[in-house]
Amino acid sequence: MGRIIAFANQKGGVGKTTTAINLASRLASRGLSILLADLDPQGNVSTGLGIDKDRLTQTIYDCMVHDHFADEIIVPGPVEHLDILPSNTNLAGAQVELIDESFFKDDMKFTRLRRLLIPLKERYDFIIIDCPPSLGILTLNALVAADGVIIPLQCEFYALEGLRLIQHTVSMVKQNYNHLLEIDGVVMTMYDARTNLSTQVVEDVKTFFKTHSGHVFNSIIPRNVRLSEAPSFGVPIDRYDQHSSGAHAYEAFTQELLVHLNWKKENNVSV
Length: 271
What we know:
39% helix, seven-stranded mixed β-sheet
């Protein structure tokens, strides 16, 4: 049975999509079967993995709103063992349609993604959801569907404020819709070793979690030009520049996550 992990942060530009893509790629490189669900109407996961989102005739929108089967939508990624549930701007319409009470009754609007992904847990080791930069209906669908949440947090002054907000949202979802939901951890991104601010933010977040029973990954994702360039070539960083600091950081993060989750697989995939 696979694990569903949502990457969520209500703030944009924190490295959420970059982290989802590169974690998915590194997991797939270990022989694990991975599905990466693009739940952002901007479709950055799709673009970043070489999919022409403007030419898509069906997307995750059709699954959530029109009950299309996932197999009609899933496309192979540029890495073996990695599949993608793509997205484009059509998904923005779902944000309106899913809150229309005449369209979905009661709490069904919060469980559309769950109904889509739960049957796929038998097929994939990990299902990774890239959420939009908001705490709206799409992100709530992701949190209701997920087993765990990873919060990418940029090393900036307002990091803790954003962290408190998403913690509160996760707590509310767990209390009302998904009792098994857990925060798998916080991963610090866009770290600049040349600045005192980045170092201080990391220390502040670790101190915060010491009193809030949370987990901060030791692996820190640096600011790296090669990471920024890779999406324009439609590949993850390990396919673009495997020797870059960004590639090494995501390999370390993947290893650490598997150990943190105590991940075991019958086919002896190395963690």
